[in-house]
Amino acid sequence: MRTGVRSVAAGTLALVSAAAGSLAAQGSQRVARSAQPAMAVSAETKLAPAQGLLRTLAGTWHFEMRFAGNFDAPADVSGTRVFKPLFDSLRLEWTEVLDHSPVQGRGVVGFDEKSGRFFSSGVYSAGSTPEFLMGTMDDGEPLVTFTPLPFMPDVGRTPGQAFALSVIDADHFTVVALDRAWRAVFTRQQEH
To answer: For residue range 152-168, what is the model confidence (pLDDT) as tens digits?
Structure first.
C-alpha cells in the first residue's frame, strides 16, 4: 500500500513538473513570490497616501452640514472641528463645537500600518455611546469609506453611520453619509 501512495505522489510531482516545463516552453516566466502576505504589501503601499491625507486634515476647519433635501437653504448645522497630531503622523485627535448649540464632540482618526486601514472613533456630549468605525482608502483618489464596527449590539443605541470622507483639495473636504441622509462640507480656516 505504501508503494502505491509513493507512486501516486511521484506521478503527481511528474505531472506538475511537466506542466511547469510546458508553460516555460510557451514563453512564460517564473515569478518570484514574496513570502509576505498580500495584505502586508497592500498596507505598505497605502502608508504614504494615508500619511498625506492625515497631514492634509491637520488644522482648523469650519463645516456646514445639510440633511437630505436641503440643497440651497442655510446649513442645518455648522461648527468648527480642529484636528491635531496625536503621537505621530498616523493619528489625529479632533475636537468639535457647534456654532449655535452646546453640543461638543471628541475623537480620533488614524491609520493602522499593519492592516492598511483607517480607524475612527468619536463621542458626542449629546450622545450616549461612542462610535467606532474602520475605513478603507480608495486606490485612485483621496477618499476613505468608513463603516461601523460590528462588535457592539444595536439594542438600545444608535449605531454609527457609514460615511465617506473625500479630500477635494488642501482647503476643502466633504463627509457624506452613505445612505445620503446628510452631507458636510469642511473649509480650512486660516491660522492666526
So the answer is: 555 444 456 899 999 99
The three-class DSSP label of residue 161 is: coil
For 89-132, write each residue's pLDDT tens digit: 999 999 999 999 999 999 999 999 999 999 999 999 988 888 99
Can you tell me the distance from the alpha carbon of 51 to that of 64, in angstroms, rounded to the nearest whole number? Answer: 25
Instruction: Give me the residues paired with residue 61 across strands.
Output: 81, 188
Cell numbers of 134, please?
A: 474602520
Instruction: Report whether 84 contacts 58 (CB < 8 A).
Output: yes
Q: Are 146 and 159 in contact (CB under 8 A)?
A: no
Which residue is listed with cell 439594542? 155
Q: Each residue of 37-50: pLDDT tens digit?
A: 444 456 678 889 99
Contact of 166 with 142, CB cutoff 8 Å = yes
Q: Which of 165, 145, 7, 161 is nearest to 81 (CA)?
A: 165
Kindly report the pTM of this predicted structure.
0.73
User: How many Å from the N-terminal Cα to the C-terminal Cα in the chain?
Assistant: 85
**Dist CA 69 CA 185 (whole Å):** 15
Burial of residue 113, with CB atoms counted within 10 A of its CB: 0-12 exposed, 13-18 middle, 19 or more buried: middle
Are residues 181 and 70 in contact, defined by beta-carbon separation less than 8 angstroms? no
pLDDT exceeds 50 at position 188: yes
